[in-house]
Amino acid sequence: MYPHERSLVKKMSDKPFALVGVNSDKDLEALKPVLEEEKITWRSFWNGKDGTGGPISAEWNVHGWPTLVILDHKGVIRHKYLGNPGNEKLDEAIEKLVAEAENDSKPKK
Amino acid sequence: MKWVGYGLLILVLASPASRGDDPPKDKEKKEASAKEQYDALVKEFAAKRSKLIPEINKAKGEEQQKLIKQYQELGGEFADRFLKLADENPKDPVAVDATFWIVENANGGQAQAAAAKKLTALIAEMPIKDLSTRLKRTRATPAVLDAVLKRAEKDEKDPQAVDLVAWAATRAYYLPAGRKAAETMIEKYPDHPAIEQVCLMAANMEGGDELLRKILAKDPKPKVKAAATLGLGKALAEKTDSLGDKPAEADKAAAEAEKYLLAAAELYGDDAARKKEIDGELRVIRTMRVGKEAPDIKAPDLDGKEFKLSDYRGKVVMLDFWGNW
User: Fold this and answer.
1) How distant is the Cα of A23 from the closest Cα of chain B, in angstroms?
2) CATH number 3.40.30.10 given to A2-105
């Protein structure tokens, strides 16, 4: 899913949107060349040395990878997907929430 | 990049069950050699495949694509040899294993078509008990599933036929035929030992919640009731998370999920593993489901520098639990 993530980040670069990862690789040294090669520029938390058994995925009760959780601009969980639900569906959900965020930041009359 | 997913297709093939009869010596010799040939083929295939994995990891671009293709087509390359083995030893149990092997591992091609035909005939005719045993190490592909369910229907009067339906219900819950098998189990065989597992699987099934309500409406035995209650709680929790656009419905599903999860905790009583599982589900449905404010995350990034999820407040965030595998 890297190509779609890259295009999403690019497309949304001037919008109130951020892609944040929670990475569950055990070996960060082995991961570094991949970050470069795949141009993974977005920031990720590290789930720790236990990989998929790490504390963040445990706290969030994540048992399948990838899992995508979409939060709105107020930090409320709005969607959860086990696996990529399809690029179109994903974009639609994000765009809707981004429009909400933009609407909210307009000065109220 | 996600080619490693094919690793899931690796199958552990146990050696074929030995037969109870006492064959004359020369026949025994022949059987051993057919089996030896089969084992050698399986081993050769596994070795070739595991050799390809590091090569794929190292390669890039076009070269990598080529190797991935090789990996995917490896089963097809072996299929003719397995087919020959089956044809040369039609009475040997190895013929059954070789036929199953081809259907599971070859990616299309003539040998697979031939094997699939053979397999349909085998499933239709071999003793149900042997078939049940063989299915324990068989992946539920649509073709096999179809043949197995036809067999179960044909021999409906045989008390062992229900084991075939149970296999379909527990192994293929994600396929329509598997779902239908689960319905059959629930309608006709609520006392079958596999029903507990069917209930837990149904949590992941599309429309599983309705199916589980049907079971509960029948006032099943305690063990089944506990499993169906837990399954329903989980199914409703899943449903909640799919209702992000309909907050009122999400709230309703969440409240119901909580009710069933609490009931399941009661029904399972002292079962520590289940208690832990249910506690996790309850925590999520109460605090981390769709519609709730996400808890903060404060942890190091991949360079060891700490940051927080709440740093992004004001922006829509896609939190992506990922790994490069």
Assistant:
1) 5
2) yes
Q: How many structural domains is chain B composed of? A: 2
Which residues of chain B make contact with A90, given a CB cutoff of 8 A? 318
Where does the pLDDT of residue B174 fall: very low under 50, low under 70, confident under 90, or very high at 90 and above?
confident
What residues have CB less than 8 Å from B222, skipping those under 6 apart? B267
Q: Is the ipTM value over 0.85, yes or no?
A: yes
Contacting residues of B for A101, CB less than 8 Å apart: 314-316
- Residue A61 to residue B280, Cβ atoms within 8 A: yes
Residue B288 lies in a domain: yes
User: Would you tell me how many other CB atoms lie within 10 Å of the CB of residue B128?
Assistant: 18
Q: Which tokens go with A61?
A: 């009760």
Q: What is the pLDDT of residues A68-101, one digit of tens each?
A: 999 999 999 999 998 888 899 999 999 999 999 9
Going by C-alpha positions, the residue among A57, A18, A85, A2 that lies closest to residue B297 is: A57
Residue B62 lies in a domain: yes
Average pLDDT, chain A: 90
Using the Cβ of A80 and the Cβ atoms of chain B, whether some distance falls under 8 Å is answered with yes
CB contact under 8 A, B318 and A69: yes
pLDDT reading at B311 higher than 90? yes
- In angstroms, the CA A103 to CA B13 distance is 59
Question: Does residue B181 belong to any structural domain of this protein?
Answer: no
